[in-house]
Write a structure and sequence with these properties.
about 260 residues, alpha+beta, PSTPO5379-like fold, 7-stranded antiparallel beta sheet, 4-stranded antiparallel beta sheet, 6 helices, globular, Putative_hydro-lyase, lyase, Putative hydro-lyase RW1_013_00490, EC 4.2.1.-
Length: about 260
């Protein structure tokens, strides 16, 4: 499969379903949550109050299926897999939501940690889930997000095992990209996040550790889905965890420049 964002979106539109970690290196990926207009302010306020797990990169017009991040894309067909929510419950998981789209929906595109994986990997840090051909493991934590209107819920994190001698490197590279979650929220003991077993993720797939690996946890854009469940939204459409929108936006646009110390 080609790594061109447009070609990948075309493949998804034609029915290809696969996690997007490792695809289209060098281009940003985004989480999706679309909610009825009368919930849009609550979601916007929730993201503003919780920027670490919910960094907003674009918000669509009411009813729009487009995003400036991928001109010409249709957000109802061009992700590999979606989730449909009704009254806070998962109602369906499907590769096409065009027939379910409503004219009152507002789409939020939230930064994704898959975006910083390319520079992390380019620096020589292994990505175990990519090596193993699996989805990244994600966990609901014991850290509550700051509530906003009718929206509340726990923070979700993604986990990557990193060799101990490269932990600081992975942290430093991701910290320069706050628009896609930035640096890790926790390193080490999963129990401090309320995670009982790193081999049993709430979303995604388990990943095998290599000797000397340390678990690193980053805030995750699946957090709004946890809020959908906790807040019992009457209707929402989201990406399926790990199945993102691949945009035409270079990941370099989200890297903060380091000031010249001279």
């Amino acid at each position: 499969m080609t790594d061109s964002p447009a070609d990948l979106r075309s493949a998804f539109r034609s029915g290809t379903v696969t996690p997007t970690a490792g695809l289209a290196p060098g281009f940003a990926q985004t989480n999706l949550i679309a909610v009825p207009q009368d919930w849009a302010y609550d979601v916007l306020l929730f993201t503003q109050r919780n920027p670490k797990p919910c960094p907003v990169l674009d918000v669509g017009d009411v009813g729009s299926r487009e995003t400036m991040l991928a001109p010409g894309a249709d957000i109802t067909t061009d992700l590999p897999l979606y989730r449909v929510w009704k009254d806070g419950e998962l109602a369906d998981e499907t590769a096409d939501v065009s027939a379910l789209w409503r004219d009152d929906l507002v789409a939020f595109h939230i930064g994704c940690s898959f975006t910083f994986e390319h520079p992390v990997a380019a620096a020589g840090v292994p990505l175990r889930h990519v090596e193993q051909g699996s989805n990244v493991p994600m966990f609901v934590t014991n850290r509550e997000c700051r509530p906003a209107g009718r929206m509340s819920g726990p923070m979700v994190v993604s986990m990557r095992p990193v060799p101990e001698h490269q932990v600081s490197l992975a942290a430093a590279i991701s910290a320069r990209m706050p628009a896609v979650h930035g640096g890790p929220v926790h390193i080490g003991d999963p129990a401090e996040l309320g995670i009982a077993d790193v081999a049993a993720p709430d979303f995604g797939d388990p990943v095998n550790f290599e000797p000397g690996d340390v678990p690193m946890f980053w805030a995750c854009g699946v957090t709004p889905q946890a809020a959908v469940m906790a807040s019992r939204l009457p209707f929402a459409i989201t990406h399926a965890p790990g199945y993102m929108l691949i945009t035409d936006t270079p990941d370099s646009e989200y890297v903060l420049e380091v000031p010249d110390a001279r």
